[in-house]
């Protein structure tokens, strides 16, 4: 009926849905939304219709997006044990340390347990990487990203 190709209509619908979901995710203001769609070159009447569509549906889009987000496990508790093998039948003087970690997680009101075992040097490397990641979270760039995600 429109005398337009199927691909053109599909790309238009995908673009419109992308515009609305990303705008709703970031909860951008009316002015920012208008600035975003102004560069697309649409008429003023179409820009006003898109703005009204965004304002009418952004809360519903955000609620749908929050339902679609994966429910990741959360930390509950941690148990650890240090095992050291001092000798064996073939080697009488050896030191072979191992750290065993039992991680209790909550996921969807269910409690799961993960048992991990590593040597101390790998554990120290993991600790350094986690501390580096925590340090990155204190940068202004990461704070801005986290603020926009919420």
TrEMBL record:
Alphabetized InterPro entries for the sequence: COMM, Commd2
Domain named COMM: residues: 74-141
Highest taxon above the source species: Eukaryota
Pfam family, one: COMM_domain
Protein name, as recorded: COMD2 protein
